[in-house]
Amino acid sequence: MDKQRKPLLALSLDELKQIVQEMSMPSFTAKQIADWLYKKRVTSIDGMTNLSLANRTKLAEAYEVGCYKPIQTTVSKDGTKKYLFEVVGGFVESVMIPDGDRCTLCVSTQVGCKMGCKFCATGKQGFHGQLTATDILNQIQSIPESKELTNIVFMGMGEPFDNTDNVLRVLNVLTAETGYAWSPKRVTVSTVGLIPGMLRFLSESQCHLAVSLHNPIAEERLEMMPAQKAFPIARVLEEIKRFDFTGQRRVSFEYTMFEGVNDQQRHVDALVRLLSGLECRVNLIRFHTVPDTPFKGASMQRMEWFRDQLNKKGVTTTIRKSRGEDILAACGLLSTQKISDNSKF
Asked: N or C: which end of the chain has fewer CB within 10 A?
């Protein structure tokens, strides 16, 4: 992107109205620009052909679309694709997962992550910068499958509610009639439980929520997830239970299973107590080995036992299918530290 010009991508209709007003353009020009950005997915201001040449020239002096392509694509044997983007602060990855008539994109919100979860490659990378709303939306808009996407999950690199303002800006574009006009049911945002950002999200959007839980016992969760100290999972659940999940909005809980660590009967019982009274789903995730971690994944037999125990006790539980492990695109494996250290781009 041209650092001298500001990006239009991720701006709301109201913000576009402000721009055209300042440039003394007709007010309807804002809606035209929004249509070009989000309906027609134009990549340059020159392509906005129903704007006069004079207005396109004036707009292009200060602004650009702000869409930029991934610099690398890696394809898994199962069809999953991992895209690499260069951003301020380093590099980020997003993952496209085709599955029958569904096509899901897992997007990143930060370069690295501050949360430091002991079992996550991104967490081990550390934090190197926030993505702008343009950077986040660009992951969605710039890939070849952009118009085929059916779902977006904010489960890539970073903690979305450590970058709440920019995440909410992107959600607005995705769901606004003057943006992508998607149903909020097509979008899920994941968090380790950062309560301030989570509450804004629950109040200001209708998209689905996913909570990275991984252990329902406070002391044990703290050993795995430092965020437990500031935002205890019991408090996170108290806040979530204030909202309505009996309709079309869903809340789910991500639970990566580790042998002998969080796969015992006491964990089943604690999960049942913690989630009592909440309409929700638990997704069990196979642990994909991350170097320099003490964890070992639970066996499939143990995961099935754990799933069955929870289902018997009334907690809807499924085992999530693993995708893209051979290209380091599966849950917990995204990291661009080596790329940053050995950058040849």
From this structure: C
Q: How far is residue 128 CA from its own chain's centroid?
A: 17
DSSP lists the bridge partners of residue 204 as none
Which of 64, 67, 93, 106 does the annotation list as catalytic?
93
Tell me the DSSP string of 226-263.
THHHHS-HHHHHHHHTTS--SSS--EEEEEEEBTTTS-
**Residue from 67, 106, 207, 331 carrying the catalytic annotation:** 331
pLDDT tens track for 84-97: 999 998 999 999 99
Kindly give, in sequence order, each residue whose CB lies less than 8 Å from that of residue 168, ignoring residues fewer than 6 positions away.
200, 201, 204, 205
0.90 cut: is pTM over it?
Answer: yes
Is 1 within 8 Å of 66 (Cβ atoms)? yes
Q: Which CATH number fits domain 72-341: 3.20.20.70, 3.90.1150.10, 2.30.130.30, 3.30.300.110?
A: 3.20.20.70
Residue with tokens 């910068």: 129
93 is catalytic: yes
Between helix 133-141 and helix 164-175 the angle, nearest 10°, is 40
Among 293, 291, 297, residue whose Cα is nearest residue 319: 297
The token duo for 188 is 């899920």
Which residue type is seen at 19?
I
Q: What SS3 class is residue 240? A: helix
Token output for 311: 């289902």
Residue 223: active-site member: no
Tokens describing residue 146:
């952009």
345 pLDDT band, cuts 50/70/90, is very low
